[in-house]
UniProtKB/TrEMBL annotation:
Gene Ontology, cellular component aspect: cell outer membrane
Gene source species: Labilibaculum euxinus
UniProt subcellular location: Cell outer membrane
Top-level taxon of origin: Bacteria
Family: Belongs to the SusD family.
Name recorded for this polypeptide: RagB/SusD family nutrient uptake outer membrane protein
Entry-linked CDD domains: SusD (cd08977)
Length: 513
């Protein structure tokens, strides 16, 4: 178990975190807070520059960011249901059935957390850019810090545009309440993201150049892989192909031979990892917003038989998709079954007693009482990729130290396969696709035409299930109409009503709401 061993895991509160997008009339918002170090004087050492960039990472760790990372990416799709208690499930049902409203807290959290991360990133960028070069060990290091923050700012924009479509682009630090910024079309947002990351990529180190203490920071490989992904969304398929190929040719990454190992503690920041959110078990910090652990584990592990909430349960449809493909390896590493929950969570002593009983009725009645502790089990499956077993589980329920994987080499290969297909390079599309399938123990795909594209789409689902992309992928590929409640008018979330109310028309509601 990891204790205090991840250098960028500390949740730094060294910078202002609020984000003001619009023209609020309250004059007190424009006052200087007495006794607090302002941005103008804060950036006076390399140590503080590093801290400012680390602060920009911290919103990735906020439990509300993670919460609506998977709630949107997985439970809006055919991969999972929201589940949890009856209240939990009912609270998300309007979004699942495409009847969400602009005053829902889920919508507000997604918007607010991403823009808070954007503003922290901008604060780091502008603060560091204004610092004399001689304050740094090298200009190269200074430029690296700026590049990290720019990629983070781009990533937060990416999360927003996928959820809300038209959003304000913030390419600078918002310092006052009077600045008015309207929304931009998704195509312009993607263009901004691409420009930001392309400018940053040359100044980032390759993964192998980082020390162990810096693993988890943005690398050249992640910037390249991210550019491949964003260009896929923007339908710039030639560019997506080029950037994915740069990752492949770098030889910095390879598929882990053991798929399940990728999601273990030992597999963190491993040979397949381009970027992941690092967490630690910090036993002295246990609050919802004052800890460095992975709150998402608590959300998703089984309910009441342990301390989990039992949310984000995989569907039978996903299980059937694995079975239809003959995909045993990835199914076992992705789906935790009810029987496995019982085997893991019921104490071994109970099983030992059960196995020695000669009266089967007594034995079964006793075991059933233990099994009954598992409640609100709506599908029979849980998320294996984020599950932490009893031996490794933190006693502080919000502080489990397992990382969240953001991008893996397998995804880069599948992005390359799709980009190759879209650029009439079916040969290389099959090679990349089959490299991923080979690790899963599946036969090579020999198809061409639309059958090949369907195989790539299917592979993305099975390979990346539970990793928070499925709904976005269905939208991107115009296949979201397979969802039972799908509404074209509500395919994006509504803009938070509170954000609209604070403006004089700069921020508009999405069509259909």
């Amino acid at each position: 178990m990891k204790l205090y061993n991840k250098s960028i895991s500390k949740l730094l509160l060294v910078l202002a975190t609020s984000i003001v997008l619009t023209n609020c009339s309250d004059d007190y918002l424009d006052q200087v807070k007495l006794g607090q170090e302002t941005s103008d004087v804060y950036f006076n050492s390399q140590e503080k520059a590093v801290a400012s960039v680390t602060a920009a990472y911290s919103d990735l760790k906020d439990y509300r960011f993670g919460w609506f990372f998977w709630a949107f990416g997985e439970t809006m799709s055919d991969n999972a249901i929201y589940s949890g208690s009856d209240g939990d499930n009912a609270g998300f049902e309007p979004l699942k059935t495409f009847n969400g409203t602009a005053d829902m807290f889920q919508v507000r959290y997604k918007w607010d957390l991403c823009y808070r991360g954007i503003n922290k990133s901008s604060q780091a960028i502008e603060g560091i850019e204004g610092m004399p070069d001689e304050l740094f060990e090298s200009v190269t290091f200074k430029n690296r810090l700026i590049a990290e923050a720019k990629v983070l700012r781009a990533f937060y924009h990416f999360e927003l545009v996928r959820a809300f479509n038209r959003i304000p682009i913030l390419d600078h630090l918002i310092k006052g309440a009077g600045e008015k910024i309207g929304q931009s079309d998704a195509s312009d947002v993607y263009a901004f993201i691409i420009t930001e990351v392309e400018a940053s990529e040359p100044n980032l180190p390759v993964k192998s150049a980082y020390s162990a203490n810096d693993l988890g920071r943005v690398t050249k490989g992640f910037a390249q892989g991210f550019l491949a992904k964003v260009n896929l969304y923007a339908e710039n398929f030639e560019d997506a192909k080029v950037w994915a190929k740069k990752v492949i040719d770098s030889k910095e990454y390879q598929l882990d031979p053991d798929f399940a190992h990728v999601f273990s503690f030992d597999g963190e920041n491993g040979i397949e990892s381009l970027f992941e959110i690092n967490f630690i078990e910090s036993l002295t910090e246990a609050g919802a917003t004052t800890n460095n652990g992975n709150f998402q584990t608590l959300f998703q592990i089984p309910r009441n038989i342990t301390y989990g909430y039992g949310i984000n349960q995989p569907t039978q449809d996903l299980a059937d998709a694995f079975d239809a493909a003959g995909d045993v390896i990835r199914k076992e590493a992705t789906l935790l079954t009810t029987d496995e929950v019982y085997a893991n969570e019921i104490p071994q002593g109970v099983w030992d007693w059960y196995n020695t009983q000669t009266d089967s009725q007594v034995a079964n009645d006793s075991l059933d009482q233990w099994k009954a502790q598992l409640t609100f089990n709506r599908t029979g499956y849980y998320q294996q990729k984020i599950y932490v077993g009893p031996d490794d589980r933190s006693t502080e329920i919000r502080n489990n130290p397992n990382n969240t994987r953001i991008m893996r080499y397998a995804e880069v290969l599948l992005t390359y396969a799709e980009a190759c297909y879209k650029t009439t390079d079916e040969g290389n599309a099959r090679i990349a696709l089959n490299e991923v399938r080979d690790r899963a123990g599946l036969a090579d795909v020999t198809a061409s035409g639309t059958a090949l594209l369907d195989a790539i789409y299917s592979e993305r689902r099975l390979e990346l299930a539970g990793e928070n992309d499925r709904y976005h992928e269905l939208l991107r590929t115009n296949r979201a109409n397979i969802l039972p409640y799908y509404s074209e008018a509500h395919k994006y979330w509504p803009v938070p009503q509170a954000e609209i109310d604070r403006t004089t028309g700069e921020i508009e509601q999405n069509p259909g709401y």
